[in-house]
Structure formats: structure tokens, C-alpha cells
Amino acid sequence: MIRFYSEEKLDAIMEFLKVEIEDVHVWSDNSITIGDNDITEYYVTKGKRKYSELQGRINGFNIYKQ
Known about the structure:
Elements: H1 7-17, E1 24-26, E2 32-34, E3 37-45, E4 53-58, E5 61-65
């Protein structure tokens, strides 16, 4: 199954973390990992997220780290 992930969310996480698209991995639970690190998960949302640490905001999105 091909999974769709918002281009706006991808742009936000890439700008926030200053990474290239090749380093971004989107998982089936909508979490994002960067590069070879598959332990640190990021979430890009418009709303609040429980049990995750807010890292900041960019382009109207909240960036959470878990």
C-alpha cells in the first residue's frame, strides 16, 4: 500500500531539523525518523500530542519528539 504524507508536514520537519528529504523516513504510525537513527521519533501535527515533548513550531505545525 502506498502511504500519503502531507508535503507541508515534510517541508516543516525538514526546515525545522535542517535535513534533506533523503534523510527523512515516514513510518506507518505517522512518526518520522531522521537518517540512521530509528529510535528518536518526531511527529508533525497541527494540534497537541500527549506523551511527547514539544520541540517547537514552524509553518503552523507543532514538532514533537518522542
